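Subject: sequence -> C-alpha cells, single chain

Hey, anyone have a minute? Need the predicted structure for the following. Not urgent.
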Amino acid sequence: MSERVDELRRSREKNWFLRVSALLVLLGILWAWLTSQPLLGRLSAERRWLNFQNFAGELIPSPVRKSGQWSEAGPWVGELLHEGGLAALWTTLGVATAAIILSAVCVIPLLTLASRELSRPNPFGLWSGRMKWIESVFRSGIGAGIRFAFVLARAVPEYIVAFLLISLLGLQVWPLVLALAIHNFGILGRLWGEVAENSETAPPIHGLGCGQSRSVVFISRLFPADFNRLLIYFFYRWETCVKDATVLGMLGLLTLGKLIALSKGFFWDKMFFYILLGSSVILLGDLFSTFLRRKLR
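Reply:
Had a minute. Here:
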C-alpha cells in the first residue's frame, strides 16, 4: 500500500508556479517578521498580564463589581437600554435593513443586462434573430457598462461616501443608508451576477427555445432556481451592513457605534454590552436566515 502511495506521489503533476509562489510568500513573512518592530512592544510579560486583568475586570458591570451580586446586572442592562441603547439598536437595524433592501431592489432588474450570457446578441449561443446594428452594439456594451458600475460602486469605501453625503445632506440617517446602499449595490451585483453566471444552462436555453424573452427567462427560470443562494448573499451582506452601520455611527449619528465610542476608555463595561447587543442581532439574523432557507427548500 505504501509503495502504491509513493508511486502516486512521484507521478502526480507538479506545478512549479505554486511552489515558487509559496516560497516567495514564506520569504515575505520571514522578512516582515525580522525587519518590523517587536509585535509585543516594550512592556514586560508581567505588565501585559496585569493590563489584561484590569481590562477583564472592567468588563464586569459596575454594579456587580461593587456589590458582587450578579442580580444587579438586570437593572443595569435595563437602564442602558432605556437611556439610549434601544433607540441606537433600532436606528442601526433600520439603517442596515433599508440599505440592503434598497441595493437589492436596484440590482435585481439589472442582472438580466449584467449577465454575460443573457446580455449578448445571441444568448447562450442561440440565434435570436436578425437585429439592427444599434441594438447589437447596445447589448454588447450594456453588460460591460453595468459590470463596471458594480466595480465602481464597491471600489469606494462606504465610510468616505457617508462622510461626503453627511457634508451635503446634514447629520441624518439617509446619508448612512445611501452610503451603505451604494457600496452593497456593487457587492450584491458582483455576487448575484456570479450566481446567475454559474447557473444550470438547460432551463434558460429551453425557455429561450420556446420563445420566451430574456427577462422572462431570468424571472421564471434562473431566479427561482438560484433563490436560495441569492438569499444567502442577501443576509450575509445584511449582517455586514449592521456592522458597518454600527461603525458609521461614530460619525455622530445615534447608532450603537456612537455609544461604543462614548464608552471607550471610561466605561468598558458599557462598551462591551453595546458590542454584545450588536452581535446578538447578527446572531439572530443568521438563525432567521437559516430557518428561512430551510423552509424554502
